[in-house]
Amino acid sequence: MPRLKDKVCLITGAASGMGKAACHLFAREGARIVAADVSKADGEEVVAAVKKAGGQAQFVQCDVSKETEVRRAVAEGAKAFGAIHVLYNNAGIFPSDDHSVVDTEEAVWDKVFAVNVKGVAFVCKHGIPELIKAGGGSVINIASFVALVGCSVPQDAYTASKGAVIALTKSLAVQYGPRGVRSNAICPGPIETPLLMEWLLKEPAEKAKRLNRIPMGRFGKPEDIVNLALYLASDESAWTNGAALVADGGITSNYF
Questions:
Q1: pLDDT, tens digit, for every residue of 79-119?
Q2: 193 vs 184: CA distance, rounded Å
Q3: Domain range spanning residue 122?
Q4: CA dihedral of residues 91, 96, 102, 108 (deg, nearest 10)
Q5: Secondary structure (3-state) at 170
Q6: Neighbouring C-beta atoms of residue 178, cutoff 10 Å
Q7: Residue 158 is among the residues annotated as catalytic for this protein
Q8: pLDDT tens string 183-225
Q9: Which of 34, 44, 74, 245 shows its CA 20 to 30 Å from the CA of 209?
Q10: Within a domain: residue 69?
Q11: Of 112, 92, 118, nearest to 37 (Cα)?
């Protein structure tokens, strides 16, 4: 039996990278997909591909940093499929001008927190009531390994935002666990998304520096994270609540 049969999953940042991979995998496992992304063309392309493969999906254009757009996206998804059972908060940004706390501009902090923290909060604010109406469900928040360790090449706004995601996840787990909604975070290591790979191809020294820290000897692939998210979306994780699950090839365990 498909692992997500009869589940409706709202996935943010669905047009590329891990979000795109999640749309395809979750649909293959029987889920109906509400694909939310700020990019209309790319999001509709993902939905078309899911449908072509025999899945069910609907695109909703949504900037998660804007509460009115999130409210509308959740309402459209619930109306299209009758319920929502999974919130997959995958949307996030990682600006190139995010550096140390001493040289990162205020505008960068505002932009990063608007998407990475407020975006998660808005989806949960409007989505969790739908999960409760459906009899329970799963909130999956994408944090990062950098929220757990320091970095000599800092991205402090991003790092702080992902720490906030873990803290928020644990608060949600306590608040809504009694109502059948479990909330968990995934902390990925460096993943081969187009954004990261484009940068590292231009900077071979930076690529080598990062690879040397990963005991598995490779960057993660979107599927490495999405397969873990599949477990959290499925009923197999019925007693997993408030966890921050690390999938990083061992990078946070590497002293030297």
A1: 999 999 999 999 999 998 999 999 999 999 999 999 999 99
A2: 22
A3: 8-191+221-247
A4: -50
A5: helix
A6: 7
A7: yes
A8: 999 999 999 877 677 766 678 887 888 888 999 999 999 999 9
A9: 245
A10: yes
A11: 92
Q: Whose structure tokens read 């669905």?
A: 14
For residue 124, give the nearest of 60, 162, 176, 174 by alpha carbon. 176
**Is 57 part of a structural domain of the chain?**
yes
What are the structure tokens assigned to 75, written together?
């309402």
* Partners of 142 in beta bridges: 186
Check if the beta carbon of residue 14 is closer than 8 Å to that of residue 43.
yes
- Tell whether 127 is covered by a domain: yes
* CA 96/CA 158 separation, integer angstroms: 10
Residues present in the chain in total: 256
Bridge partners of 87, per DSSP, are 10, 139
Tokens at residue 162, please?
A: 């992902």
How many domains, the chain? 1
Say if CB 142 and CB 246 are below 8 A apart.
no
Strand bridging mode 56-61 / 32-37 = parallel
The active-site residue out of 88, 158, 176, 255 is 158
